[in-house]
Amino acid sequence: MAADDQDQERAVVETATTPADTRRLTVSIFSRLRTERGQANPFPLYAELRSKGDVFAAPWGGHIVTGFELCDRILRNRDWLEPDAAWRERQGSGTRWGAPSSREMSKTLPALNPPEHTRVRRSAGMFDRSTLSDLQAPIGRITTRLLDSLAERLHDGEADLNMLVSEELPVATVGHWLGLPTADFPRLRDLTHDQVFTQELLPSASQLALSDAATAELRVYFTDLVRERRRRPGDDPVSRWITVWDELESDRDKADEAVYLLALFVLLAGLETTSTLLSTMVLLLLQHPRQWDRLTVQPDLVPAAVEEVLRYDPPTHVISRVASKDCVLGDTGIRKDEMVHLMVAAAHRDPAKHEEPELFNLHRKPGHLAFSGGIHYCLGAPLARLEAQTLLRQLVTRFPRLTLVRQPSWAPRVAFRRLLNLDVTLI
Q: How far is residue 321's CA from residue 299's CA, in Å, rounded to a whole number?
């Protein structure tokens, strides 16, 4: 953005004192957030949102929340619900919530509320200490193989780490765990990129169409997988889920549907956000070379580095919840069934939570909402951390002189960050 445009926008911020002014400013901010330029550095825009207060009306309905304490409270409070199937149905078939992909997502674990959420989450039984221990060696081997490919490309000058490593490690990890054919990985990765549009903050009609098509194809893929594992069970999560759900559900079709939804959830949760975390992690550290150099001599700081990345620029920037009853949030009245959009990436820079929040600091006390909170705390968080820490340890050991070639491009999204490239070289 040009300097005169920035000055003009600051003037708007300073004079936006009425609800109409706030509405116009908010529309302007989100219009810019939905562009590649806005996504390249959304944090000044988030600062503008925070200047309007911790809670204020969203132009499209509902409310926007930017304060860390309020976001944290909502995520931990059971009075705030996921927009589940019943809520989406009440919004009407002509809304984005009536799209086939949205209806399908409403059946998956992240969109369920108790008691069904409790039942399904207990059945998943994933990523405990034993599972993570079993996955540690395979993830290490996959990471080494991917970095071997990166090294070969770097011999010729530069390489796209996003394409060669960040996009590949999560799908290879989830694929290994679920026992999927490696030949299917590229298609599953592409389908995930399209499917996530239905989970975006303000998806367009064309984006929803892509998500609908991807969701339909993923349904066929994973229902076929469940049928195959029922015919030939093995030592894998899908086979174990079939056994669990046969005990929970007497109707075999319903049991198989539940297993399909778990497999779909694992793929969608394990690919998109983790890929973004991996690339963002490398990008931020290369943009802060002193921190990168510190890791090369102090690899014990790797876990702290991953946590600071999750605070500084989390993969998911917006989490939405619905009020289960009339309430007051801050000084704002919220009605039952109204949605609030928690701008967690803005909340992570809340100076009331973190001292010097704009500073990328590996020694900061952890405190972020990147994996949500409460009963909906991300089941895959331990796996995402394991992948990120494994990759970072190997990177700083094998490529201590890694450097950024150019600033990356970003997909024009708001809720789910996605880098399109991360070009690196050795100096």
A: 38
Hey, how many other C-beta atoms are within 10 angstroms of the C-beta on 90? 11
Tell me if 57 sits within 8 A of 63, measured CB to CB: yes
Quick check: bond before 400 cis, omega within 30? no
Lowest mean pLDDT, pick from 3-12, 16-25, 333-342, 382-391: 3-12
State phi, psi for 81 to the nearest 5 degrees.
Answer: -110, 160
Of 207, 213, 188, give the one whose Cα is nearest residue 104. Answer: 213
Torsion sign, CA atoms 145, 148, 153, 158:
positive
Q: Distance between CA atoms of 211 and 26, rounded to whole angstroms? A: 26
CB 34 within 8 A of CB 41: no
pLDDT digits (tens, 9 = 90+) for 35-91: 999 999 999 999 999 999 999 999 999 999 999 999 999 999 999 999 999 999 999
What does each C-alpha distance from 237 to 117, 175, 345 come to in angstroms? 19, 11, 33
Average pLDDT value for residue range 295-305: 97
b/e string for 347-358 if b means 16 or more Cβ within 10 A?
Answer: bbbbeebbeebe
pTM: 0.93
Question: In terms of DSSP H, where are the helices of 232-288?
Answer: 237-248, 252-287
Residues 6+ positions from 253 with CB-CB distance below 8 Å: none
What is the rounded CA–CA span in Å between residue 299 and residue 31? 40
Q: Are strands 63-65 and 339-342 parallel, antiparallel or unpaired?
A: parallel
232-256 burial, b for 16+ CB within 10 Å, e for fewer? eeeeebbbbbbebbeeebeeeeebb
